[in-house]
């Protein structure tokens, strides 16, 4: 495997971890007010839109890192990095950086 493929896989795996962490903490919505809580459960919380953005970024990152064509892989990794911008909080900003560097390496390294 080449460097851009390894960076893309690691960035995609960090996106996968980032996808499940908010639902482990806020998914059930139990709080001081019972079932509703402050987050409003799965469907009403602030993380409702999160899978709709993170799952395409995860799929594009995995496909871009597993494909053998450097140009297409680089473009897919850069698109995955742009789509992973909402995940850019805390530790998981590393996934954005890894996907972006992997995409740039795939495009510009000979």
From TrEMBL:
The chain crosses the membrane at residues 6-26, 47-68, 74-107. Keywords: Membrane, Transmembrane, Transmembrane helix. This is Uncharacterized protein. It comes from Saccharolobus caldissimus.
